[in-house]
Amino acid sequence: MTDGTKKLYRSRIDRKIAGVCGGLAEYFGIDPTLVRLLFVLGLIFVGGTLLAYIILAIVIPEEPA
């Protein structure tokens, strides 16, 4: 039984590398392609998003089976 709270997990199904973008997209209810595009644009124009992605991949738990 769920308690109604949303929890952030790395996606097991919608993943390209570690499932971070798929998990974020599911949590916020948006298209995973949009999240991936934002990460790539952040990598090109801002920098540091690669480090953020790695940290998120370590910190966010994987979705339960």
Number of helices in the DSSP assignment: 3
Averaging pLDDT over every residue, what do you get? 89
Number of strands: 0
| Unreliable runs | none
Largest sheet: none
What does the overall shape look like? globular
Rg, rounded, reads 12 Å
Beta-strand residue percentage: under 5%
Helix fraction, binned, reads: 40-55%
Q: How is the secondary structure organized here?
A:
Layout: H1 20-28, H2 32-45, H3 49-59
Helix pairs in contact: 1-2
Describe this structure in words.
With 65 residues, the protein is mainly alpha-helical. The protein is built from three helices and no strands. The mean pLDDT is 89.
A few lines on this structure:
Helices cover 52% and strands 0% of the residues. It is mostly helical.
List its salient traits.
3 helices, 52% helix, 65 residues, mainly alpha
